[in-house]
Amino acid sequence: MVIGVPKEIKNNENRVALTPAGVTELRKYGHTVYVQVNAGVSSGFEDAEYIASGAQMLPTIEEVYGIAEMIMKVKEPIASEYNLIKENQLLFTYFHFASSEELTNAMLERGAVCLAYETVERPDRSLPLLVPMSEVAGRMAVQEGAKYLEKPLKGRGILLGGVPGVKPANVLVLGGGIVGTQAAKMAAGLGAHVTIMDVSLPRLRYLSDIMPPNVDTMMSNEYNIRAMVKECDLIIGAVLIPGAKAPHLVTRDMLKLMRSGTVLVDVAVDQGGCIETCHPTTHEDPTFIIDDVVHYCVANMPGAVPYTSTVALTNATLPYALQLANKGWQQACRDNMDLQLGLNVVEGKVVYAGVAEAFGLPLTDVNSVLTAESALA
After folding, report:
1. How far is 94 from 71, CA to CA, in rounded Å?
2. Minimal CA–CA distance to 296: which of 307, 288, 284?
3. Concatenated DSSP letters for 103-158?
4. Read out DSSP for 271-299?
5. Of 65, 119, 139, 282, which is most buried with the most CB atoms under 10 A?
6. Is 268 annotated as a binding residue?
7. CB 194 within 8 A of CB 184
8. Angle at 181 between CA 175 and CA 184, to 5 degrees
């Protein structure tokens, strides 16, 4: 198969979809890999490393899209890329369709095969291609939250871990999944007093067992959230419903209950956000303030630590990319239910329930597209 790796062009997105090591593995199976010039530089990978691994370099993004059967990316295509996408072309990347009707409609119109990293799902309901970036984002949420608690950045002026004789900050983590667990560990490690909320009592029991003594667990419901936001300095939204829009757990009126300089970090913003007042921001302009509450809502947080993120992402995606390249997307998805669940939009049809529900679109049975003839079958 011919695989293309374009340079990411979303604002301050420094990651790349494939490392030179990943190129080497794909080449071992006879696949051709085209990488756009300078695609990996911001992640610490020079063009010479890709060439040494067997990649062929192309100067423009147009040439990469034009020649590839499968495009491997990190973030969803943006408007300037829409017209570059070919009918039946396989796109393997993060999409988060449920948070963008424009993107969904564009991919339907282009007739692409859109396999989303974030909905590839194992039988145990884990999300193997979301886990590495969730780990990065969860840890970064605390790092960024601690920074924006500083007074020059309009925060409360609180050191997360305090010092002897001064109480540490109170941190509330909404969601006990991968992001929430990593965020709680980081905040606790810095000495903060942490409360982690989830709707699953078994999950809370597990977290209670593994977390250090400065982490409390609490059932997530509106009553408890309203009580907690009054006394917390940093609130981290870490809620995920795979492939669907995140619910608003922190509502607009709750901001009035918070102290001036409270910091909100919404890691779920690329799925619509679990904090009602959040909207996507960029690393270039990461925060905004409403009711004296600082909102940090960068949609591609791991892009700020691109070397770590790129290596972690390739470690997770490469086994699936090899299956897609070796078998073609249809056979690979027939053979592997993990991959089948990653299909969201296929050749003008929505095949993932969460996306169809988000925009009131008709849902096509995924089996019908797996048995139909395709140019890239």
Report:
1. 12
2. 288
3. HHHHHHHHT-EEEEGGG---TTS--TTTHHHHHHHHHHHHHHHHHHTSGGGTS---
4. GT-SBTT---B-SSS-EEEETTEEEE-BT
5. 119
6. yes
7. yes
8. 95
Is the pTM above the cut of 0.85? no
Beta bridge partners of 194: 171, 215
* pLDDT score, position 372: 73
188 is in an annotated binding site: no
Calculate mean pLDDT across residues 323-337: 97
In sign, the C-alpha dihedral spanning 147, 293, 277, 222 is positive
Check if the beta carbon of residue 295 is closer than 8 Å to that of residue 266.
Answer: yes
Active site residues: 96, 270
Residues 306/132, Cβ–Cβ less than 8 Å: no
Distance CA 164, CA 180 (A): 27
Q: Annotated binding residue at 254?
A: no
pLDDT value for 10: 86
Per-residue pLDDT reduced to its tens digit, 241-258: 766 677 899 999 999 999
225: alpha, beta or left, given left = phi > 0 and alpha = psi -120 to 50?
alpha
Q: Is 209 annotated as a binding residue?
A: no
pLDDT tier at 377, thresholds 50, 70, 90: very low
d(CA 95, CA 243): 9
Res 185: pLDDT: 97
Q: Is the pLDDT of residue 221 over 90?
A: yes
Question: How far does CA 233 lie from the centroid of its chain?
Answer: 25
Partners of 37 in beta bridges: none
Give CA–CA dist 132/142, Å, rounded. 16
* Angstrom distance (rounded) from CA 12 to CA 286: 11
Residue closest to 206 by CA, chosen among 228, 183, 181: 181
| Angle, alpha carbons 73-128-334 (nearest 5°) | 80
Domains parsed from the chain with CATH numbers:
2-111+306-371 (3.40.50.720), 131-304 (3.40.50.720)
